Prior knowledge:
The strands form two sheets. Strands 1, 2, 3, 4, 7, 8, 9, 10 and 11 form a nine-stranded antiparallel beta sheet that branches. A two-stranded antiparallel sheet has the order 5-6. Helices cover 36% and strands 30% of the residues. The chain is α+β, with helices and mostly antiparallel strands. It has helices at residues 2-20, 41-55, 74-77, 97-110, 179-199, and strands at residues 31-38, 58-61, 65-66, 82-88, 112-115, 118-121, 124-130, 134-139, 147-150, 153-162, 165-168. The protein has one domain (27-199): 2-Layer Sandwich (Alpha-Beta Plaits), CATH 3.30.70. It has five helices and eleven strands.
Amino acid sequence: MIKNLNIEVQNKEFILKIIDMSILTKPGKVKLVIAFFSTSAKILDEIESKFKKKYGKIDYKTPDIDFIETDYYNEEMGENLKTRYISFEKIVLRSSLPLIKKYCCKLENKYSKTKDSILKRLVNIDPGLLSLENFILATGKAYSHRIYLDKGVWADLTLIYQKDNYINLPWTYPNYQSKKIKKALIEIREIYHKQLKNKK
Length: 200
C-alpha cells in the first residue's frame, strides 16, 4: 500500500512538471500599424497610396496630427510636421517586421533630397506591430532594451497593454506617450481583437 502511494505521488509530481514546462507554439499574426510624418500633405497621401498597394485595404486612419512632442526632426525635415497613422485589414506574421522596415527605408530614401551636400528626408516612416499585449516599433538602432531581429532591424518594445490602457516604458518615444496616439492604438486594438474573435 505504501509503495503504491509512493508511485501515485511520483506520478503526480511528474504530471505537475509536464504542466509547468514551457511549450513552444507558433505565435498568431498581428496588426501592422504605420506612422509617417512630413511637412507635406501631398507626400503623406502618396505614401499612404503606396502602402495601400503594398499591404492591402486600410481599416483605420487618423486625421493628420501635429507632431509637437519633440523638435528633433525639425533641422532635417522642417517645422509644422504632421503625422498620420494607418493600419491594415490583413494581419501579418511577426517575423515580417524586418522586411516591412526595409521597404519603409526604401521609401524614405526615394523621398529625400540633398541640401548642402547632406541627404535629408522629406518623410519619416515608422512601422510597428500591434498585438493584444504590446506595441513594437522597428528601428535600425541598437539599444539595451531592443532585440535584434534580422536585416539590420531591432524590435523596440514601445508600449505594453495593461488594465485597458497602453503603459509607458522608460524609453517610450514622447509622441507615443500622448493620450491622442494611445487612443488611436486602443481603437486599432479593438479592431484587431474583433478580427481574432471572428476567426475562431
